[in-house]
Amino acid sequence: METSKKEKQFDTVKMMREIRDVISTETQNMTFEELKAYIKQKLADNNTKLVGQ
Known about the structure:
This protein is mainly alpha-helical. It is about 55% helix and about 0% strand. The protein contains 2 helices and no strands. The protein has helices at about 10-25, 30-45. It is elongated and about 55 Å long.
């Protein structure tokens, strides 16, 4: 049985890794309080709520 390999139009794993790398670079030297403020600001910028809120 042969399997055909489809060409991906969008690589979700690659995108997730790129986003994770950017966030890691932006937050690498932050204290816990700075990290909480960073997350709060990013959620406000995107008008996103935490799960359960």
